Write the structure tokens for this entry.
Amino acid sequence: MRFPLPEKQPDGHYKQGIMKRLGELIIYPGLNEGTDRLQDKLIPYYYKAKEGPGLKSGFMFFNGVRSRISDVSTEKQNFHAEQMGVGPKYIATGVSTIVDDVIGPFARGIVNDMVHGGDAGWKTMMQHDIYSTRAYMGLSYIPKNLDLPQTHLSTNVINWLELFDKSTGWYDRAFTETVLESLAFGSVPGLPLDPIDWKCFEYENF
């Protein structure tokens, strides 16, 4: 399990963030006495393949096509999407851009509630809580500020998005759950958030 902890302040406590309370629990004195210290079991978690001088990103492999994650070439990374019934405009726009357009307005609304108070963002979310992610994309969502047809997404496009965005069957879960996950992992589209310190617990020490 990976934990997106906020950065620490100079006094050792965590800055504001979605997972601040978990961070404070990990450093709670009662759980860090003697030699069996909970915070000593934290190790770095690499949410994405490390990149930098001498390093290369990981690979994606699908439909017989092998491509590095860092290669943003549409030609190399469409993975024969057209054979899945996905139109060229959707392929050119890309999975992450479309998903961000679906999730972003709701995630930003909830963040605005947390930062400024109120519950307008949450109420908007609850107005769509009846949907699964798949149902919202296919029955309610209309692309915003994207050069895409102003219609709900087709089943083929939704399946393509799910394939590269989440695991199989994820889009059958509640739409609210998908939005909240973007908050938990600090990936709110169009909203700069404080840096995240990704951690996990070293299992063999338990």
Summary: Residues 2-47+195-205 form one domain. The chain has two domains: 2-47+195-205, 80-184. The longest strand covers residues 196-201. Strands lie at 2-6, 42-44, 59-62, 65-68, 196-201.
